[in-house]
Structure to design on (127 residues):
């Protein structure tokens, strides 16, 4: 198996572990136009970076939430809050990340993120 094939297989498995069947839909339903992006996300993000053993998945999720707050990326944040719960991050830890983000990213970004996180937690009955 080539390195790309192995990374893709690792990425698919990890992506499904973190985000479940819902998180795999964008890959499975990708058309010819979207497929290169979905392959890159699966292979690079999950197969090559998220799967590295040096940081546990819980910490990677916490870092990702903080970075997405700073970038004001509500759709990605919503998905990663759900994934963070699957990776063992608690609702209280997510709240503390959001509170801490006010200091470094500002109240508007943190406030928007708080709304998205709340909605995500409610969607998966973790609120």
């Amino acid at each position: 198996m080539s390195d790309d094939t192995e990374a893709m297989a690792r990425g698919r498995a990890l992506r499904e572990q973190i985000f479940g069947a819902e998180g795999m839909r964008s890959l499975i339903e990708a058309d010819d136009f979207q497929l290169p992006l979905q392959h890159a996300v699966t292979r690079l993000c999950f197969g090559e970076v998220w799967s590295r053993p040096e940081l546990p998945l819980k910490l990677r999720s916490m870092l990702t939430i903080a970075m997405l707050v700073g970038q004001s990326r509500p759709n990605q944040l919503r998905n990663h809050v759900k994934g963070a719960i699957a990776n063992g991050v608690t609702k209280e830890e997510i709240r503390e990340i959001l509170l801490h983000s006010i200091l470094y990213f500002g109240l508007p970004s943190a406030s928007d993120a708080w709304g998205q996180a709340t909605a995500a937690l409610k969607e998966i009955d973790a609120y």
